[in-house]
Amino acid sequence: MAPVVSGFSKLSKADKIKWLAEHHFGNDATATDTLVTYWNSNEQLQQLHDEFTENTISNYYLPFSVAPNFLINDKRYTLPMTIEESSVVAAASKAAKFWQRRGGFKAEVLSTIKVGQVHFSYHGNPEKLLLFFSKIKSKLMSSASHITKNMEKRGGGVKEIELRDKTAEIENYYQLHCTFETADAMGANFINSCLEQFAKTFVAEAQEYDNFSDSEKKIEIIMSILSNYVPECLVTASVSCFVNELPSTSELSANEYAKKFVRAVNIAEIEPYRAVTHNKGIMNGVDAVVLATGNDFRAIEAGAHAYASRNGKYRSLTHAEIKNDVFSFSIEIPLALGTVGGLTNLHPLVKLALELLGKPNAKKLMEITAVAGLAQNFAAINSLITTGIQQGHMKMHLMNILNQFEATENEKEQLIKYFKTNTVTHSEVVTQIEKLRAS
Ligand SMILES: CC(C)(COP(=O)([O-])OP(=O)([O-])OC[C@H]1O[C@@H](n2cnc3c(N)ncnc32)[C@H](O)[C@@H]1OP(=O)([O-])[O-])[C@@H](O)C(=O)NCCC(=O)NCCSC(=O)C[C@@](C)(O)CC(=O)[O-]
Ligand SMILES: NC(=O)C1=CN([C@@H]2O[C@H](COP(=O)(O)OP(=O)(O)OC[C@H]3O[C@@H](n4cnc5c(N)ncnc54)[C@H](O)[C@@H]3O)[C@@H](O)[C@H]2O)C=CC1
Description:
Helix content is about 50%, strand content about 20%. α4 (about 90-100) packs across α13 (about 360-385), α10 (about 270-290) packs antiparallel against α11 (about 295-310) and α10 crosses α13. It contains 16 helices and ten strands.
């Protein structure tokens, strides 16, 4: 077991690695070599990456991929996608290619309101608190004007502050429930700064408020923080076509395909076990664009799953229907994304990704990202109701298995040829490698 270390954060990068090598890797040089191999030879670039987070000792690469042919609101895009899982980029590309010949994707931002809350305890008469709040509300707003003035010039700022009584759930618990518009920023830091200012002003004003008793004056702030639940920062995307334009085979007509597809989505609307996997497939596309564009994927994940269970049951984020011989498929998803702030103007590949998308504003990026989720879900369901997921997924995963077994170029060539006409499973790849090596 490694010893407790004090002052680790203050060590140089080299000394941090030395400590790790000594206490976790028995001074085996391989560990150090692996870490150093991933350093960037451009020292300036490396320093930039070192400074993104804390205790950085190396870089962790993920593939930076692209999916072409996305027709969104009549404009063609090539999507940047950062993801480790094979077949996601292929699936997105396949769906994009399919829908670009059928009118493409339509997307629309429904609203962009974000939420933050000051959580506090108040011991006293609730009516007096409400009266106090109504008296000082405008002062609360104006106390943050030094933070909000530039955001207001961009059309954003604080929208509303509400006092919410939560004492039915927790004794003496109240909130300032605040809503914001943050223009092209995701807004976490802006919102948190505003909230902390509201909290300070709230406490100070309470102490000066003559109508409060001494105990009522002692408002205790528990915390001030934005919410990643953003049901009003919402975007929708959809595709539609005549049923007879859908894929068909001798075993499954286009009409049967449409019905089977809708049924698959319906199952994800009522069955949580399926819905979670269904939405995971959607997030394959969403997260890949979110990561490539330097956005906060934890915030997006948390918000999307909370939205999926907003009615008390976890459900699909997509919906499908057939009406008058038209098949339509849509998604509605909360996406608090930014095209300024965070890493967006810092990471060279993020800058490139945004440039690839034509330097979108936050709303446009919300539309593009929702489309990536819908496309991914379309491709996954298409596979699930026809060939099954494994055929296409394992075809893409083959190279990973071959690399695990350190297959030579010659072995790869022979096995790729073999698996063109044979189903890829992990065990079959192992059998074929062993066969080759024994011959
Ligand atoms: C994998 C495919 C696309 C193969 O599909 P295919 O029909 O065998 O592909 P193809 O070789 O005929 O090529 C057709 C198009 O697919 C794309 N494509 C094809 N291959 C590549 C490639 N190597 N690199 C880049 N793009 C590729 C590309 O757009 C290509 O057009 P082209 O470029 O030739 O004009 C298909 O089987 C598919 O869409 N499968 C779904 C895969 C999937 O959803 N993967 C996610 C991982 S599984 C998961 O995490 C979640 C899940 C699935 O469980 C969610 C759920 O249950 O809902
Ligand atoms: N719970 C959460 O989700 C939390 C997330 N974070 C992190 O906060 C970061 C995002 O915070 P932000 O406030 O968005 O970033 P940020 O702190 O980099 O601020 C962005 C700033 O850019 C400026 N700006 C310039 N042009 C703008 C425009 N057109 N529209 C809007 N603002 C413009 C504004 O001053 C704005 O406040 C992410 O890195 C996220 O991971 C931080 C705390 C909590």
